[in-house]
Specification:
alpha+beta; Helicase, Ruva Protein, domain 3; 10 strands; 264 residues
């Protein structure tokens, strides 16, 4: 599933293609993409709209339109955008400069939701916590939590946009075991974890995300972060920091990689 770095990479690549452009025509070929709204109705509503801004909130892309409405896109597991046609095309936005942007989704779990301006923030606030790359980001919501810290930081109401890959990478950077009760972390450990989350996400953005199967930037180029994983997917390999073989366990049903030597 695309996480914050992958969604931010897509946002940054689409921004110069879309912002300031008018949608001449929208085609939505998959009824699952917009349900319960009919795809024809959403496509008709998008036609003629000007894209004023393209933003990201957690794992959501926000297409801010001239009417004030917002197209909220969640890529889920395999959703992505391409600046060319694609075999797994689910929707197309044709623009006033003669170009088009294609939405592809192999497993068809992605969603497009067209909201009125006043409905956007309540919708997101009910589902997302703080943005981890903003200065005001804290881990205050971990206080008193008995859940494993890995499960707690995967809660989107605690850390917006963090997913399985970057959670493992962040915990390794912080030297925190993924099964530690979240509320047991002391102030120093919380500071290290905050820094680890931010550093892991920034590293992912700088390398255009992680390509393990379907993910690619809109121009088709793969991400490079998978070449620099410290723990994720590296069971049995030596830790880059202490040499101990990386171990794998499960936390909240998710495959979890960590170093038994320096994440005690």
């Amino acid at each position: 599933m695309p996480e914050l770095p992958e969604v931010e990479t897509i946002r940054g690549a689409l921004e110069p293609l879309l912002v300031g452009r008018r949608i001449e025509r929208a085609e939505i070929a998959d009824e699952r993409l917009t349900r319960p709204e009919p795809p024809e109705a959403v496509a008709q509503a998008l036609a003629g709209e000007r894209v004023e801004a393209l933003e990201r909130r957690g794992k959501y892309l926000l297409f801010r339109l001239g009417s004030g409405r917002v197209l909220l896109v969640h890529l889920r597991m395999t959703g992505s955008f391409r600046s060319a046609d694609d075999l797994h095309r689910r929707a197309v936005l044709e623009l006033d400069d003669g170009t088009s942007v294609t939405y592809r989704d192999v497993r068809r779990f992605g969603t497009w939701l067209l909201l009125d301006a006043e409905d956007v923030e309540p919708y997101l606030a009910a589902r997302l916590g703080e943005e981890p790359l903003e200065r005001r980001f804290t881990l205050d919501r971990l206080a008193g939590r008995r859940a494993p810290v890995k499960a707690a930081i995967l809660d989107q109401r605690t850390v917006a946009g963090l997913g399985n890959i970057y959670a493992d990478e962040a915990l390794w950077r912080a030297r925190v075991h993924p099964l530690r009760p979240a509320g047991s972390l002391d102030d120093d450990e919380l500071r290290r974890l905050r820094r680890g989350i931010r550093d892991a996400l920034r590293a992912g953005i700088a390398r255009q995300g992680s390509t393990l199967s379907d993910y690619a930037a809109p121009d088709g180029s793969p991400g490079r972060m998978q070449r620099e994983f410290r723990v994720y997917g590296r069971a049995g390999e030596p830790c880059d920091r202490c040499g101990t073989p990386i171990a794998k366990t499960r936390v909240g049903g998710r495959g979890t990689w960590f170093c038994p030597g320096c994440q005690r």
